[in-house]
Amino acid sequence: MKFSHQKLSTYGIGKDLSRKQWLHVFRQLVQRGLLAQEDQYGGLQLTPKSGPVLQGTDKFLGILEPERVIESLGGKAGEVEYDPVLFEILRKRRKELADAAHVPPYVIFSDKTLIEMAAYYPTSVNSLEKIFGVGSRKLEAQPKTGNFESTAANRRWKK
């Protein structure tokens, strides 16, 4: 190997986790502010908050879910891995709001939008804004649309 990474003491650590599980861990690190997603290319970078964890003076206690809990949207190109339990919670909330407004559920949010919410766990209006199907009109109607980012954040912390 060109750069001799195999000689590092940490080489191979984590190979027992699947790709889906690593993505889940990374999402938790982003949600807790230990990693930040770079806007232009989507890469991950350490935040100042991650220093104490890396130095061993603070701990990160995340949840490692069995691989079967994370599902994907039908094998299509660009498929999104998501939390099916959160998706169902969001679907029920969407149905309640749609019934109250006398509109079909897709008017509130499409399934694709709910799947992205269940994948990325938006925790603020800013992060909700980056979800497919959430435009300025829906953000202005936040009280009417049920604060979906709060539902996603609460699901993440209750798990």
- Percentage of residues in helical conformation: 40-55%
The CATH class assignment of the largest domain is: Mainly Alpha
- What is the averaged pLDDT score? 79
Q: How many domains is the backbone divided into? A: 2
The CATH topology of the largest domain: DNA polymerase, domain 1
Instruction: Going across the biggest sheet, name each strand in turn.
Output: 1-2
**Number of discrete helical segments:** 9
Query: Low-confidence parts lasting 5 or more residues at pLDDT below 50?
Result: 69-73
Anisotropy-based shape = elongated
Give the ordered list of helices and strands.
HEEHEEHHHHHHH
Descriptive overview:
The protein has 159 residues and is mainly alpha-helical. It has 2 domains: 64 residues, Winged helix-like DNA-binding domain superfamily/Winged helix DNA-binding domain (Arc Repressor Mutant, subunit A), CATH 1.10.10.10; 89 residues, DNA polymerase, domain 1, CATH 1.10.150.80. It is 47% helix and 6% strand. The protein is built from 9 helices and 4 strands; from the N terminus they run αββαββααααααα. It has a two-stranded antiparallel sheet with strand order 1-2. The longest helix has 18 residues. The chain is elongated, with a radius of gyration of 18 Å. About 3% of the residues have low confidence.
